[in-house]
Design a protein that fits this description.
By secondary structure, the protein is an alpha/beta fold. The protein contains 6 helices and 8 strands. 28% of the residues lie in helices and 13% in strands. The strands form 2 sheets. Strands 1, 2, 3, 4, 5 and 6 form a 6-stranded parallel β-sheet that branches. Pfam families: Flavodoxin_2.
Length: 275
């Protein structure tokens, strides 16, 4: 498959599923398989990055930048920038970057472990999101802080989280003991996906996964298929764009009066009435 070929079809789309679970027979594996099979049946192209099967290296270290001076101090952003600009990143990272360039949409499939993504998936982000590829893009000055939060290399693409959680849905509600699920996933949706330009779809979350039988899975599967069919037509989360005028420069703070009274925290960065 040529990951860098341009998109030409008007109906068929290209979807990358980044899958992070060590057990193929898990619920996460079943959800990944459901997505792949359904999207292919709809005429889309699908690629799966199975991180455990690929034995993905999760930690960033000097080996990620083969041409660097091993005797020099490791400075990850600077070494990442030099390696990306000279096309000398490791082969595994470059393959994943090519997949991201190729894809029209990206779905991250993972279990919620300790209120976040598994370490192997975080390591995929850490290594694949190189300086000059996912960050450090565009003009950086006292007038503009780069092409980020709605702009960047992933602009025009869509992304969605598909997450499994062992707890009850109520545990992740507005007054739930674990905290609201949208707040918990905000650093991933806003920071990992919206930052480099993705339009981010509301997350697909499955709860009480350790007690799920075949009947319950049938309902989950149907809900997932509905979400997949709306991947390019449903409205994304209305995250504010950094360079669209909502933020003061250079402080990058939200301009007064743009939020409903009493709004604070993460909710400030979602435009009211457009979520």
């Amino acid at each position: 498959m040529n990951f860098e070929s341009p998109q030409t079809a008007t109906e068929s789309k290209r979807v990358l599923i980044v899958y992070a679970h060590p057990e193929p027979a898990s619920l996460n594996g079943a959800l990944k398989d459901t997505m792949r099979e359904h999207l292919l049946a709809r005429g889309h192209e699908v690629e799966v990055s199975d991180l455990y099967a690929q034995n993905w290296k999760a930690s960033v270290d000097g080996d990620d930048f083969p041409l660097r001076d091993a005797a020099a101090k490791l400075v990850v952003p600077a070494d990442s920038r030099r390696a990306f600009s000279s096309d000398s990143l490791t082969d595994d990272v470059r393959r994943e970057q090519d997949k991201l360039r190729w894809a029209d949409a990206v779905i991250l499939q993972f279990p919620l472990w300790w209120f976040s993504m598994p370490a192997i998936l975080k390591g995929w982000v850490d290594r694949v999101y190189a300086y000059g590829f996912a960050y450090g893009v565009g003009e950086h000055s006292d007038r503009r802080w780069g092409d980020r939060y709605g702009e960047g290399r992933m602009a025009g693409k869509r992304a969605m989280l598909s997450v499994t959680a062992g707890g009850w849905e109520e545990h992740y509600g507005p007054r739930g003991i674990n905290g609201p699920i949208d707040d918990m996933l905000f650093p991933i949706n806003h920071g990992v996906l919206h930052y480099p330009g993705f339009e981010v779809m509301p997350s697909f979350v499955v709860y009480r996964t350790d007690r799920m039988g075949e009947d319950q899975f049938a309902g989950v599967r149907e809900r997932l298929i509905q979400r997949l069919d709306g991947l390019w037509t449903d409205a994304p989360i209305a995250f504010r764009q950094q360079n669209a005028g909502d933020y003061e420069v250079p402080s990058m703070t939200l301009r007064p009066g743009l939020e409903p009274a009493g709004t604070q925290g993460f909710a400030l960065h979602v435009a009211a009435g457009r979520d």
